[in-house]
Amino acid sequence: MEEHSPSTASDPWKGRIVALLVTALCTLIGLGLRGQLNPVNLVMLYLLGVVLVASRYGREASGWAAILGALSFDFFLVEPYYSFAISDVQYVITFVVLLITGLVISAKTSRLAEQSRYFEIKERHTAALYMIARKLASTRGRDNMLYVIRLHIEEAFGGTAMIWVMENGTLQCMTHPAMNDHLKEKSAALFAYEHVQPAGAGTPTPTGAQGFYLPLKGSQSVMGVLGLLPKAEQLLPSDKLQLEAVAHVAASALERVIIAESAEQHKIEAEGEKLRNTLLSSVSHDFRTPLASIKGVISSLMLQDDRLRPEDKNELLASAHGEVARLERVVSNLLEVTLLESGKLKLKKDYYFLPELIGNALKQTETILHGRQITHHIQPELPALQVDGLLIEQVLVNLLENAAKYTPDGSPITLHCDSYGGQVKIAIEDTGSGIPAGEEEKIFDAFHSAEHQSRKGTGLGLAICRGILQAHGGGIKAQNRPQGGAVFTITLPIGVIPAITEVA
Amino acid sequence: MTVPKTHILIVDDEPQIRKFLRTTLTSHDYQVSEAEKIADALKLLTTHPPDLMLLDLGLPDGDGLDVIKELRGWSQLPVIVLSARGQEHDKVAALELGADDYLTKPFGAAELLARIGVALRHSRAGNQPQPSVFESAGLRVDIANRQVTVDGQEVHLTPTEYKLLCTMVKYAGKVVTHGQLLRDVWGKHSSEQGHYLRIYMQHVRQKLGDDALNPKFLITETGIGYRLKVP
């Protein structure tokens, strides 16, 4: 620092020239006053010059000013003039005192100036450190953070800032991937990472690297390595200290974000795992139950065909037939849930009258609704709806199947269908035990019922209903009826149906 | 001299499906030949022409739709398309290309035999004059006299409604796509006005006293079109 204060280091000649000019000026003034004042007083002029040069141009320049001043004083202002010979011994003392005082003042003054410059830089560094700490505190995500750190260092120090992070077992330069091929730089970075100490240029580590590397020390472990390829040959010691401070701030910020990200990742993985497990167990249940019954029927027919009474045989076949239909619905629902989840469900909208769709849904659930009284109250003159007919049919099939599944055999089901306020409303009422309190919303979550082992089925059906209806701009809700049983209510918007004019 | 058996060509790459079709059809007195690829099917169609073809749309060496396209260039052979749920687009495309009907996999034997029966009847009637009276479940459409009755009661239809019902009668038992109906009833350029058809169909149903929840006459084939039930 003291040897390299910016102006003297950059241009020593400037200081020397100024020293010469200042001395010349003092001499000119001295020449003007020569003879009027005691030459001892003129010494003060030169001392003033030395102080001025020292405050601005450092020790070397002010030293020159002191020497030049002493010589000029002797040459121009002490008799005999224009000679270095000194006639009066008292001026020998004046000359020596001027030289020594000049040198001492120059040393002290330039030191003071350098110190104030040092504090100025230090203050600037502190402010910069505060800035980066504040920026990092408001940065989310590792990659954003790396970018902020890099930008800050390059602005504050110049050169190229690198951040190296351990990825898949090797240290990788995240900010400049090309650096991964510079073996000298990479080994210096690795040294800093492994030994948790500075490495590279200006350190005793024998790597021959041009960059300076600092470990990013977190509270638990080393987060990575901060590297700087400086513009100048070497970093100044003060810059190294400052860079260490930045590295400290960057490391704790990185640690915070890495811990947060890994916690998030763990949470996502755990939930994905849970979902996969419930899906697997419920889907295999949904497939296995009908398969078991179908296999049973077939094996029984193969084994004892001639011993079975025709009515028993028909009953077995009918049950296998029903189970096949159940399998078909499971497959349809799985297909739909995949489309809904992936966001690839495209509505093929067309005009339908609700009774058509309800009729088809009832036809598809004929077997499972067998023996139940199905009542319907459908408002006459319901407007046509613009919907994906197949998907709305599937909603109705799922709701009817649901009603059949959770209510005793033979209990009645009632359908209400009416329109109001630009919407049609379809309500499917049953007389079963209703929905457990507090689960009116949860039953529409995928796999909800699968989480309750007492329930039957994947619990996909209702989630699909909700997905399909939402895609149509409609909705679904479940409630318990005051007189017992559950009611599922679907709403669908009535679009604008173009008017027609018949030429009859 | 024995009457030659009706010959059905099965084109499907799934051996289990072919086995089910073969067993069901031979036990109902049909003669069966099988192809698992488009190339084999096209060869059989020329060397050993069948009376009807059951055609799967997804075949290993191409799209079943291409078979229909090619076939319709030179033959009116009835074609029933086999396709999965959710492929309504393909079914409509096949029907518009000239397929006679479709079956959604998985289907049962009764459905299969009924569809084959209807398709064969239409193909045999194709060469003869259209019967002037259609009757099914109490509905009677007398085309010569432009008279429609349900259980003996006369039903008054507007000219468009009548034309719509007559078109359904013409294809009785077969599925008729929305596009086909629009072209037949309203003319070539009406296929944009899909809602016309739904509303007229609704009027016809109401006038015939057909319950949409449990239709006796006009069935909605969701995503495809309509079908007039046959006895």
Strand tally of chain B is 14
The CATH fourth-level homologous superfamily of the largest domain in chain B: Response regulator
The assigned CATH architecture of the largest domain in chain B is: 3-Layer(aba) Sandwich
CATH level 1 name of the largest domain in chain B: Alpha Beta
Description:
The complex is a heterodimer of chains A (504) and B (231). By secondary structure, chain A is an alpha+beta fold. Chain A has four domains: 6-130, no CATH class; 144-265, Beta-Lactamase; 295-341; 343-493, Heat Shock Protein 90 (2-Layer Sandwich). Chain A contains eleven helices and twelve strands. Chain A has helices at 6-10, 12-33, 39-77, 89-137, 142-157, 183-195, 237-304, 310-342, 354-364, 389-406, 460-471, and strands spanning 160-167, 170-173, 199-200, 212-217, 222-229, 350-352, 374-378, 385-387, 413-420, 423-430, 475-480, 486-493. In chain A, strands 2-1-5-4-3 form a five-stranded antiparallel β-sheet, sandwiched between helices. In chain A, helix 4 runs antiparallel to helix 5, helix 4 (89-137) packs parallel to helix 7 (237-304) and helix 7 packs antiparallel against helix 8 (310-342). The radius of gyration of chain A is 46 Å and the shape is rod-shaped. Chain B has 231 residues and is of the alpha/beta class. Chain B folds into two domains: 7-125, Response regulator (Rossmann fold), CATH 3.40.50; 133-228, Arc Repressor Mutant, subunit A. In chain B, 41% of the residues lie in helices and 24% in strands. Chain B is built from eight helices and 14 strands. Chain B has helices at residues 15-27, 38-47, 64-71, 88-97, 109-125, 159-170, 178-186, 194-208; strands at residues 7-11, 31-35, 52-56, 58-59, 62-63, 79-84, 101-105, 133-136, 139-142, 147-150, 153-154, 175-177, 218-221, 225-228. In chain B, the strands form four sheets. Chain B has a five-stranded parallel β-sheet with strand order 2-1-3-6-7, sandwiched between helices. Chain B has a four-stranded antiparallel β-sheet with strand order 8-9-10-11, with no helix packed on it. A three-stranded antiparallel β-sheet of chain B has the order 12-14-13. In chain B, helix 6 (159-170) packs across helix 7 (178-186). The longest helix of chain B is centred in the middle third of the chain and has 17 residues, at 109-125. The chains are: A alpha+beta (504), B alpha/beta (231). Chain A binds chain B through residues 321, 324, 328, 332, 335, 348, 350-353, 355-360, 362, 376, 378, 384, 389-390, 393, 497-498, 500, 502-504, and chain B through 85-86, 88-89, 106, 108, 158-160, 178, 193-196, 198-199, 202, 211-215, 220, 222-223.
